[in-house]
Please model this.
Amino acid sequence: MTTPDLFALLKLHEGVVDHAYQDSLGYWTIGVGHLIDARKGGKISPHIIDVIMQEDVERHKQELFARIPWASKLDFTRQCVLIDMAFNLGADGVLKFRNMLTHVFNGRYKDAAHEMLDSTWATQVKGRAVRLANMMETGVWPSLPPP
Model:
């Protein structure tokens, strides 16, 4: 028997589900019978958390740059600001910041930062908006607390 054989057997018995679901006993599960329900000690490992985040970041980055191709030419810090916003709001949400994007396109980063802070989004995400606006304005990566 090989590992692929075992994987095929487990997939047959457990099923493959690409979203959270409740198993036959009502416990939250994902993937191939992976228990995530904290009531039963379920969780995902830090490695899997990072893998999921990496895939999510890449998807949001691709969606953003497909919609705003010129953003891929920005410096790394300002690209990350827009990717962070897309992670939070989706590419469509970022596109609603028309004035901000116009300012970014024209290199008026202080005005772009002002537009970011003068939004409902900023009142919802508070410190995140302040940090991202500072990054947009200055192009400087902030000191971050350890993970």
Remarks:
- The longest strand covers residues 17-22.
- Residues 45 and 51 are 10 Å apart (CA to CA).
